[in-house]
């Protein structure tokens, strides 16, 4: 019996065709482009900005200046102090509500102070969110004895966030 010489066939070179791989890549690219869905950006709010700066002059005497509510936090994130126009009120949102109600009053209707009343909330960076919501609730209104909603302040804005301490 004779043994074959198989060592002589090892010099044959095998070429891999790239055309099918490129076809598959283009098919995948087209598939992902066709199935891509563009969604609305999260947090896209309809914000009304003023068209131009108000004319300089004397302020409207019937307009209240913005009331500044400062919410200070303990390092743990709990509420430490509430201040209204730099006057400390302790930790009671009920006291804040009563102070706002004293300033704004209970008069309703066109031309009332509620239309021009504005509150600016200034909260510490690490204050827990529930305290901010409680402050908004305290200044925005209440339910009267007949379970009707009574608005106090409709314009609530936030001051720029304070940077966290290092």
Short description:
This protein has 166 residues and is of the alpha/beta class. Helix content is 25%, strand content 20%.
CATH class of the domain at 67-158: Alpha Beta
> What is the share of helical residues?
10-25%
CATH topology of the domain at 67-158: Nucleotidyltransferase, domain 5
Our estimate of the beta-strand percent is 15-25%
Biggest pleated-sheet summary: 5 strands, mixed
Terminal residue distance:
87 Å
Structural class by sheet pairing and helices: alpha/beta
Number of strands: 7
Q: What would the average pLDDT be, to the nearest integer?
A: 77
What's the structural blueprint in terms of helices and strands?
Blueprint: H1 19-35, E1 67-73, E2 79-84, E3 87-90, H2 93-104, E4 118-123, H3 129-140, E5 141-143, E6 149-151, E7 155-158
Parallel strand pairs: 1-4, 4-7
Antiparallel strand pairs: 1-2, 2-3, 5-6
Helix pairs in contact: 2-3
Describe the structure.
The chain is an alpha/beta fold and 166 residues long. It has helices at 19-35, 93-104, 129-140; strands spanning 67-73, 79-84, 87-90, 118-123, 141-143, 149-151, 155-158. It has a domain at 67-158: Nucleotidyltransferase, domain 5 (2-Layer Sandwich), CATH 3.30.420. Helix content is 25%, strand content 20%. Strands 3-2-1-4-7 form a 5-stranded mixed sheet, with helices on one face. Strands 5-6 form a two-stranded antiparallel ribbon. Strand 5 and strand 6 (149-151) form a beta hairpin. The longest helix is centred in the first third of the chain and has 17 residues, at 19-35. It is elongated. The model has no long low-confidence stretch (mean pLDDT 77).
């Amino acid at each position: 019996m004779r043994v074959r010489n198989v060592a002589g066939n090892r010099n044959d070179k095998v070429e891999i065709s790239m055309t099918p791989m490129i076809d598959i890549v283009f098919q995948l690219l087209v598939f992902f482009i066709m199935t891509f869905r563009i969604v609305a950006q999260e947090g896209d709010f309809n914000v009304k900005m003023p068209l131009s700066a108000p004319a300089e002059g004397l302020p409207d005497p019937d307009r209240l200046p913005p009331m500044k509510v400062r919410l200070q936090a303990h390092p743990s994130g709990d509420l430490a102090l509430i201040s209204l126009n730099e006057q400390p009120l302790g930790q009671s949102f009920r006291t804040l509500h009563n102070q706002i109600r004293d300033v704004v009053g209970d008069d309703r209707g066109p031309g009332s102070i509620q239309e021009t009343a504005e509150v600016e909330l200034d909260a510490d960076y690490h204050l827990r969110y529930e305290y901010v919501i409680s402050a908004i609730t305290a200044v925005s209104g209440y339910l009267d004895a007949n379970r009707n909603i009574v608005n106090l302040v409709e314009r609530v804005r936030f001051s720029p966030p304070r940077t966290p301490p290092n």
